[in-house]
Amino acid sequence: MARAGRKNVVNWIQEDYQSNKLRFIAEITGMTSNLMASLILMWYSPNPPMFWAYVFFLIATILLMSAAISRKSFGFTVMYIAYLAIDGIGFLKTLSWLG
Predict the structure, then answer these.
(1) Residues 95/58, Cβ–Cβ less than 8 Å
(2) Which DSSP symbol is given to 8?
(3) pTM for the whole thing?
């Protein structure tokens, strides 16, 4: 049973890649960027370099938002627009451009 489930997942991933290679790469790169930002926060806690964390968060948000738009996913698109606003404000504050 587990072997059949694993095969279905592998087929699903292959089908997703074949259907839109650019979107697939954007999603993988976005997820990797989010992980990098989280690792930066974890590694350098309690005083992480927020500039770099926000750079990776913003890259991830833009890539994942474009993938959500490509998939015509309203919920994820709205969520990534909100993340873009939140991370954008945080990034500007980090640069001391806002309060």
Answers:
(1) no
(2) H
(3) 0.88
